[in-house]
Design goal:
The complex is a heterodimer of chains A (323) and B (563).
Chain A (H helix, E strand, L loop, with lengths): L1 H28 L4 H5 L7 H10 L6 H13 L5 E2 L4 E2 H36 L4 H15 L2 H15 L19 H38 L3 H8 L4 H12 L2 H15 L3 H6 L5 H10 L3 H29 L7
Antiparallel strand pairs in A: 1-2
Chain B lengths: L1 H22 L16 E6 L14 H10 L4 E2 L13 E2 L2 E6 L5 E6 L13 H12 L14 E8 L2 E6 L6 H8 L5 H4 L22 E7 L3 E6 L12 E6 L3 H9 L5 E2 L4 H6 L6 E6 L4 E6 L17 H9 L3 H9 L4 E2 L22 H10 L3 E2 L5 E3 L2 E2 L1 E7 L3 H16 L3 E7 L1 H9 L5 E6 L6 H7 L17 H12 L3 H18 L2 E6 L2 E6 L39
Parallel strand pairs in B: 1-10, 1-11, 18-19, 18-20
Antiparallel strand pairs in B: 2-3, 4-5, 5-7, 6-7, 8-9, 9-10, 11-22, 12-22, 13-20, 13-21, 14-21, 15-16, 16-17
Helix pairs in contact in B: 8-10, 13-14, 14-15
Classes of the chains: A mainly alpha (323), B alpha+beta (563).
Chain lengths: 323, 563
């Protein structure tokens, strides 16, 4: 186990270094720079911009800038965000929890819903229930995330004003609410983005789950369970489901970093200032340090999630040996 | 001669009426009573502020916030006059006196003026503010605008003296408009070179009628009424700018009722609001105008004339190919107006009666024929092996400019010019401008009210690093006329010089003047606005109010502190 973890950590360090180097190079190759974007006003002269570039070392060769960034990052200093005019670490400290608040409920709900629907379908394959649920899932699986988010926004925020159109909380009243009211306000702001994310992800989870269940249902141990007098429903839910969870666990592991890195379109449509939105806006503003730090955080998350998934799969399936 | 003078008088009258129409006014027709004090307005914004430290201001929201939080010595008048001190109203300086030689002005600071932390405003703050802008370590965008000011000295705690190198018409404007006064006791402990990234620069302690209560980066900025302000308490309690990630997010917040104001509505939103019972559309005056600028130098061989746009005849022919009124209707319906030249019509020096190059495709073709550009088998003209082909560079962030680029492409095609649209994101667009790496560009310019601002975009001196003349337009006559306009003390002569400069530029056709869009703001009907100034529509925000009978739950929070 120790050897496994040591090897994975070594691989992880290599992956993270490679990914951050690549993102650092790519964002520098894009036309424009953070100073031109941050000081784009018509009154700002190029001399002033050049002075800022020199002051922040942006006039130095890219290799020199990269070495300096890596050296600083190793000491925990991730640089300065020109688009947000804040240290990058402060920006990430704000954005990451916001993303997690959105992503974790959505992730848990989507897997709970997806597994449930998958089981319901697999219990009666090719029945009317299976077919109808399959159609709904296919429709959800097919629609682009931004489209579903916009429709939800249009329907429930603009036409019927049930939920706020975006943001984390009410921009004015939140600070003047009682703790209970604040909780309700936060939940109201969460409803639309969480439901959108849940529906989109649940569709693929359910399809995986249904497929996995259908592949284990013909197994000999299922026949044994049924021969012992266990009901079909009970056999599916208590025996087959556990054996059919491995692909879903893997899917969960893959979804975790994707959610935590920010679901860009959802965050954009619902004005949710999380990791995805911060990183996309940083790319548009050529905010070199913020982009690279954002990619660093995301790649670390992918690595962690991969290791956790391996561990979870090993725990769930005794046949898997980590060594 | 008499007839010409009469025409000019009529022109000036029309211009004055246009300015009056654009300045806007209170929508209610009544004024606020004592019960109408209070209320909150929420402004939806598609961008966050970059800074709240006035010397570092670069963006529009930065400017809106700092103008509300900080004061100037004196504020420009509603007519945007920049010559002398006519129309300027006292802010931090309760009065001022000119020296007989006009090379210094003594400003008497209002003894009641206080910073938002309770400290009194002193003359030393004026000196510090000026020195800070001029400090090379800070790299203030405003520094190049203060070259005529020699220094600011302190005579006593409430008297500051500004010393000028030359007596110029806009010397008063230069100091008062470009320098917002910042607190020395708050900022001076931090070296100027570190203020860009210092936490203290985000505190926003000013002396304006609103104080910065909170700035959650990327999320919201909250201003509170300074109830003890020396200029009087603003009528509103609170102004909240909510930051959406993009244009669509901001407009959705407004349309869904989450925000009271959104500044930049598009024509489709205006139609949408036609039957709205809670919101209205209000035109805020603006100084922004848009044009297709043609690069006078060859982007691939700097220093050489552009192989197409170096020729005045070609530029004029391309201008003649454009039906500007039809394009305006196509893109904006009736919500924008034609640009008449290299100026916004809301400025005092603008003259909308100047002769224009008229839309005439037959004449355009004839002009190109006579210039040696002959039509090839594919319908595109060429001359000496060079095709009449070029790019139109436009930022992808502007829907209007993108739409115009398509219409221009079609118009040019009809006279045998092959224009390719080069749509780039904003940083890429900026890089192309500053490196002159474009053929034509969809330009949008929002000038200061001063005539000298035009030198930055149309004079030869504006071609370098410190100017905005990215298209390298150069004409000694224009240079001389603009110089004369900026050194004349007689407003009538300033207008006359500027008029001739603009007329010459229009004749030279370095650009195709396309449109001016007033800021079309969506605004909640309960809000009563005050007079609106073209350079900064929020400048009178302190006088905006909400009738007591129309208050929403947000309006009723009052000034109480958050939990």
């Amino acid at each position: 186990m120790r050897r496994y973890l040591a090897r994975r950590l070594l691989q992880a360090a290599g992956v993270v270094l490679f990914v951050t180097t690549l993102s650092f190079a790519l964002i520098h190759l894009a036309p424009g720079d953070p100073i031109a974007a941050a000081l784009s006003g018509s009154r700002v002269s190029e001399t002033v911009r050049n002075q800022w570039r020199a002051e922040f070392g942006l006039d130095r060769p890219i290799a020199e800038q990269y070495v300096k960034w890596v050296a600083n990052a190793a000491r925990g200093r991730l640089g300065y965000s020109f688009s947000r005019r804040q240290p990058v670490s402060d920006v990430l400290r704000d954005a990451l929890p916001r993303t997690l608040v959105l992503a974790l409920p959505a992730l848990l709900l989507s897997f709970a819903l997806g597994i449930t629907v998958g089981v319901l379908q697999a219990e009666r394959p090719r029945s009317a229930r299976d077919r109808w649920l399959g159609r709904v899932l296919l429709a959800l699986y097919s629609v682009p995330d931004f489209w579903l988010a916009l429709v939800a926004l249009l329907l429930f925020s603009y036409r019927v004003r049930l939920f706020p159109p975006g943001g984390l909380t009410d921009p004015v009243l939140y600070d003047y609410m009682s703790p209970r009211e604040q909780l309700v306000d936060r939940l109201r702001h969460l409803v639309l983005p969480v439901i959108t994310l849940t529906l989109l992800t649940a569709a693929s989870v359910a399809r995986y789950q249904r497929g996995a269940l259908l592949s284990v249902l013909p197994s000999a141990w299922m026949r044994t369970a049924l021969a012992k007098g266990v009901s079909w429903r009970s056999a599916v839910r208590r025996h087959a489901l556990r054996n059919a969870l491995l692909p879903v666990i893997t899917l969960f592991g893959l979804s975790l970093p994707a959610f935590a890195a920010g679901t860009v379109f959802i965050e954009k449509v619902f004005s949710w200032p999380g990791m995805g939105l911060v990183t996309v806006n940083a790319i548009a503003a050529r905010d070199y340090h913020l982009v690279t730090a954002g990619v660093l955080v995301m790649s670390v998350m992918v690595v962690i999630a991969t290791v956790l998934t391996d561990l979870a799969v090993a725990a769930a399936d005794p046949r898997v040996r980590l060594s | 001669m008499v007839r010409s003078a009469r025409f000019r008088q009529i022109g000036l009258l029309i211009t004055s009426l246009a300015v009056a129409a654009c300045t806007g006014s209170d929508q209610s027709g009544t004024s606020a009573g004592p019960a109408d004090i209070g209320g909150t307005i929420v402004v939806a914004s598609a961008t966050d502020a970059g800074t709240v430290l006035p010397p570092l201001v670069a963006g529009q929201l930065d400017r809106e916030i700092t103008d509300l939080v900080y004061d100037r010595l004196a504020d420009i008048g509603q007519d945007l006059n920049t010559v002398g001190d006519n129309g300027f109203t006292p802010q931090l300086a309760e009065r001022w006196e000119w020296a007989p030689d006009s090379l210094s002005i003594v400003f008497h600071i209002n003894p009641h003026a206080k910073w938002h932390d309770g400290q009194p405003v002193r003359a030393a703050d004026v000196r510090y503010s000026f020195n800070l802008v001029r400090d090379p370590a800070l790299g203030s965008p405003a520094a190049p605008l203060l070259t005529n000011i020699d220094s600011v000295s302190v005579r006593d705690s409430l008297t500051a003296v500004a010393w000028f190198k030359r007596h110029l018409p806009e010397q008063f404007y230069d100091l008062t408009y470009q320098v917002l006064i910042v607190p020395e006791h708050v900022l001076s402990n931090t070296p100027a070179g570190q203020l860009k990234t210092a936490e203290v620069a985000r505190r926003g302690i000013g002396s304006g009628r609103f104080k910065l209560a909170r700035w959650d980066a990327g999320s919201r900025i909250e201003l509170l009424a300074d109830t003890a302000n020396y200029r009087g308490r603003p009528k509103l309690d609170r102004v909240v700018f909510t930051v959406a990630p993009d244009f669509n997010g901001a407009v959705t917040r407004f349309l869904s009722g989450d925000a009271d104001i959104f500044e930049y509505l598009r024509p489709e939103h205006v139609k949408q609001l036609a039957g709205d019972t809670a919101r209205r559309v209000q035109r805020f005056p603006s100084l922004a105008f848009n044009y297709l600028a043609m690069n006078a130098v060859d982007p691939s061989a700097p220093g050489k004339p552009h192989p197409i746009f170096g020729d005045r005849a070609v530029r004029r022919a391309l201008t003649m190919a454009v039906d500007r009124r039809a394009m305006l209707r196509n893109v904006f319906d009736t919500m924008a107006s034609i640009a008449y030249g290299p100026f916004p019509h809301a400025l005092p020096v603008a003259d909308t009666t100047l002769p224009q190059i008229r839309y005439d495709t037959a004449k355009a073709k004839a002009l190109l024929d006579s210039a040696g550009w002959t039509v090839g088998s594919d319908g595109i003209r060429s001359k000496g092996g060079r095709r009449l082909a070029f790019s139109i560079t436009t930022p992808n962030s502007s829907a209007a400019r993108r739409a115009y680029a398509v219409l221009l492409q079609d118009a040019f095609r009809r006279i045998g010019a092959d224009a390719k649209i080069d749509e780039v994101d904003f940083p890429g667009y900026m890089q192309k401008l500053t490196t002159h790496a474009f053929d034509t560009e969809m330009a949008s310019f929002n000038p200061d009210p001063s005539v000298s601002g035009f030198k930055q975009i149309w004079a030869t001196s504006g071609i370098g690093k410190d100017g905005q003349n990215h298209y390298s337009y150069s004409n000694p006559t224009v240079d001389a006329l603009l110089d004369s306009a900026t050194t004349s003390f007689d407003p009538a002569r300033t207008r006359a010089y500027a008029r001739r400069a603009f007329e010459t530029i229009i004749e030279d056709a370095p650009a195709i003047w396309l449109y001016e869009v007033p800021t079309l703001a969506g605004i909640h009907k309960r809000i009563r606005t005050a007079k609106l100034r073209a350079d900064q529509y929020l400048s009178g925000l302190g006088e905006w109010w909400i009738p007591s009978g129309m208050r929403s739950p947000r309006d009723k929070i009052g000034l109480r502190q958050a939990r």
